From TrEMBL:
Top-level taxonomy: Bacteria, Bacillati, Bacillota, Bacilli, Lactobacillales
Residues where substrate binds: D21, F22, N23, R36, H59, L60, G61, R62, R119, R160
Designated name of the protein: Phosphoglycerate kinase
GO biological process: gluconeogenesis; glycolytic process
GO cellular component: cytosol
GO molecular function, one term: phosphoglycerate kinase activity
Positions contributing to (2R)-3-phosphoglycerate binding: R36, R119, R160
Name of the gene encoding the protein in the UniProt record: pgk
Species of origin: Levilactobacillus parabrevis ATCC 53295
Pfam families per the UniProt record, alphabetical: PGK (PF00162)
EC number: 2.7.2.3
Subunit and interaction comment: Monomer.
């Protein structure tokens, strides 16, 4: 069923609690990259332009002890948000109590308030009580009492049941998705539940064990699954091929055999690889077909595989990509990943969805990100979504 979104709400004069993802890299109080704050702007602007009082909650980093708190204060984030919105933003340096309640009472329509890091609640009086991360029922209830409606725009935490997403939602009459969340549900949820065919998944990265849930779920839904990256060679081993010194998960070879049997020709392995003598960008390297020779490790898919993958992709209507095709951090083994990213940028007739840190970095580096339909904002959340799991943060959003 379709989910309620922020544009379905009457916001005028309402205290709008908003769970956003302001979990930005921060060092010595300096924000390294404000992409996540920028990404939250459309929903925040929509709320204030429609007369809502925006009360923003987010986590920032992990807090395990009192001493972790000062470096993970939300204050610099509130300041950056104020610059980006070009208007004052009230920062409240606490997560509960009179100071917070008074500040909320003092808001006028269209004002913006940023509360202190929700994970300050994980440590109280020096004790690691995990009130936020453990979804303490009292905390969710308390935060919910501070607003009239709740908007959840933090997809990155949707796979977790925390007080600031699930806890608030379960104490609120109405919870709506923000625009970022809505886009994740439309594209990733859409691909998993109701893809337009042909549906092709490209799965890479180091380990079979990390992607097994996704492979399993997508085998039932996709028309083809293209495999790349380090996990290829566990599949090679399962087929009795030679893998040289390539990455392999020995305890997953039987599982890989089962997948291969089940998948038939749905699963496509690379037919050639770039192999090197050492795990080093400057090591002697060459391209080989099939078996990986002794003394070599496979670090990228080869040009023949790229062409074969492109041949499958060119007629796709839905494409999901997660994980690099090789050791993309080293320029000599980045070609496979970059070529696939570039090709996705040419697929104007398909819904193209990218998730995961490395594949996202690849399409950004190539400058093709804006040619794709959707770049997911959540790593762990997007993987669990692709695994077909119910994400508690999304389940807690009201149906339309
Ligand atoms: P993941 O986090 O599972 O998406 O895996 C990403 C990591 O897999 C990157 O750091 C890549 O360098 C690594 N990787 C990709 N292909 C290979 C390969 N053939 N051998 C070793 N590591 C690889």
């Amino acid at each position: 069923m379709a989910k309620l979104t922020v544009s379905d709400l009457d916001l005028e004069g309402k205290k709008v609690l908003m769970r956003v993802d302001f979990n930005v890299p921060i060092k010595d109080g300096v924000i390294g990259n404000d992409n996540r704050i920028v990404a939250a702007l459309p929903t925040i602007k929509y709320v204030i332009e429609h007369g809502g009082k925006a009360i923003l909650l987010s986590h920032l980093g992990r807090i395990k002890k009192e001493e972790d708190k000062p470096a993970l204060s939300m204050r610099p984030v509130a300041e950056r948000l104020s610059n980006l919105l070009n208007k004052p933003v009230t920062f409240v340096p606490t997560t509960e109590g009179k100071q917070l309640e008074d500040a909320i009472d003092g808001l006028s329509n269209g004002d913006v308030l940023v509360m202190e890091n929700t994970r300050y609640e994980d440590v109280k009086n020096g004790e690691n009580v995990k009130r936020e991360s453990g979804n303490d029922p009292e905390l969710g209830k308390y935060w919910a009492s501070l607003g009239d409606v709740f908007v959840n725009d933090a997809f990155g935490t949707a796979h977790r049941s925390h007080a600031s997403n699930v806890g608030i939602a379960s104490n609120m009459a109405q919870t709506a998705a923000g625009f970022l969340m809505e886009k994740e549900i439309t594209f990733i949820g859409g691909a998993v539940d109701n893809p337009e065919h042909p549906f092709v998944a490209i799965l890479g990265g180091a380990k079979v064990s990390d992607k097994i849930g996704v492979i399993d779920n997508l085998l039932a839904k996709a028309d083809k699954i293209l495999i790349g990256g380090g996990m290829t060679y566990t599949f090679y081993a399962a087929k009795g091929m030679k893998i040289g010194n390539s990455l392999v998960e020995k305890d997953k070879i039987d599982l890989a055999k089962e997948i291969l049997d089940k998948a038939g020709d749905k699963l496509v392995l690379p037919s050639d690889s770039v192999v090197a003598e050492k795990f080093d960008n400057d090591a002697a390297h060459k391209t080989v077909d099939g078996d990986i020779p002794d003394g070599y490790m496979a670090l990228d898919i080869g040009p023949k595989s790229v062409a074969e993958f492109e041949d499958v992709l060119k007629s796709a209507k839905t494409v999901v990509w997660n994980g690099p095709m090789g050791v993309f951090e080293m320029s000599n083994y980045a070609e496979g990943t970059l070529e696939i990213g570039k090709f996705l940028g040419t697929l104007t007739e398909a819904k193209t969805i990218v998730g995961g840190g490395d594949s996202t970095a690849a399409v950004q580096q190539l400058g093709v990100a804006d040619k794709l339909s959707h770049i997911s904002t959540g790593g762990g959340a997007s993987l669990e979504y692709l695994e077909g799991k119910t994400l508690p943060g999304i389940a807690a959003i009201s149906d339309k």
